[in-house]
Amino acid sequence: MLVQPINARPRRALWALGFRPFFLGGSLFALFALLLWGGVLAGVLQASPVGGLLAWHRHEMLFGFAVAIVAGFLLTAVQNWSGIPGLCGRPLQGLFLLWLLGRASWFLPLPSWLMVTLQGAFLPLVAVALARPIIQRRLRNNYPIVALLLLLAACQWLTLAGWLTHDEGLQRRGVLAGLWLVAAMMSVIGGRVIPFFTRRGLGNMTPAPARPWLDRTCLLGSIALPASYAAGFNETPNAFMATLFAALAVLHAVRLVAWYARGIWRVPLLWSLHLAYAWMVPACLGLALWHAGVAISPSLAVHALSVGGMTGLIVAMMARVSLGHTGRPLTVPASIGWAFALVQMAAVARVLVVPFMSLGLGLSVLLACAGLGLFVWHYLPVLLQARVDGMPG
Q1: What is the pLDDT of residue 72?
Q2: What pLDDT does 208 receive?
Q3: Which InterPro entries does the annotation name (predicted)?
């Protein structure tokens, strides 16, 4: 059974709904992984994951950290979409254990087939858990989210195939395809929640104006990017990709302008979302310039997306969703505002300081760890304790 009735909810709050273990586990893992990565680069720590440290870093920050948060968010959101109780109790424990074993498998003496199985089984199982209530309620608007999850699993399998064959190029293609697929999910989910949260957070109860042409165009362009990476079409500069990236930069900028309201700067739960999504613009613009022949490192654009965009949006969404689904007021202390700011500063250091100073990488790691540490410190009791309003979940 993938779902349980509400009256069969587990006594321990941690296993009551998907966001709890995956938000907590994912943020703790990201904190550990960044400290290990930075420590090894600084020469103060040693680590020998299977396949090498770079392969581990590439895979785990996306398919370990980001995927955990995506799973927690979607397994929680589907309950609201469908009205069917979400995954909880022992099925949720089993899914979380599989994710945890995948993280540990890099450092265990396991046969290659077993490691790949542990790594590659998680996303398909999340997709199954997500698809059942969506199909049962015939929520056709949410079918693409299940498809995106399965495509993300395919990107992970491509990465693992590169790991098995010792093909670094294939690994890189799989990771970059997966990263831009997460960007597509950011486009879909951001388009749904950022304008809604913004208007509600500022006391405006009227619906946000619908712009279906803009949302669909962003989605189509965003889906084309991971397909081009998986096919190896981005390995050398070309005019078509320059045009596509430039067009997406403009589309994301238009969305941001449409969502903007002056009052967001008073509300950390709002400006954090807008700033995180804003990194989509320089990420796309940077790659447009690289494909146009400008001497710019594509790694800077990738880290603009992964650190500023992906991680920034993850921390902001975890903060907001955790409050809403535990019955708490949608306000955060100053420390969480600093957590949001520190993640944004980590992105600035990684993108703008690293090209000029080698110390920028260490600074970026420390800032990101500080932001994640503040989040964990404040939200640990929130995620471990029952809802304050007595409701299930």
Answers
A1: 97
A2: 76
A3: NnrS
- Low-confidence stretches of the chain (pLDDT < 70) are 1-11
- Total number of residues shown for the chain: 393
Task: Please give the domain boundaries of the chain with CATH numbers for all domains.
Answer: 13-384 (1.20.210.10)
CA distance 179 to 266: 31
In the prediction, which pLDDT does 10 show? Answer: 59
Q: What is the pLDDT of residue 7?
A: 42
Q: Which amino acid is at 31?
A: L
pLDDT at 128: 96
Q: Do the Cβ atoms of 367 and 343 come closer than 8 Å?
A: yes
Q: Tokens 């709904």 sit at which residue?
A: 17
Residue 143: which of 163, 127, 126, 157 has the closest Cα?
127
Contact 244, 221 (CB under 8 A): yes
Q: Which helix (H) or strand (E) holds 209?
A: none
Tokens standing for residue 342: 């520190």
Please give the Cα distance from 348 to 364 (Å, whole number). 8
CB of 239 closer than 8 Å to CB of 174: no
**CB distance 5 to 95 below 8 Å:** no
> What token pair was written down for 293?
């022949």
Other CB atoms within 10 A of residue 296 CB = 16
Residue type, 360: G
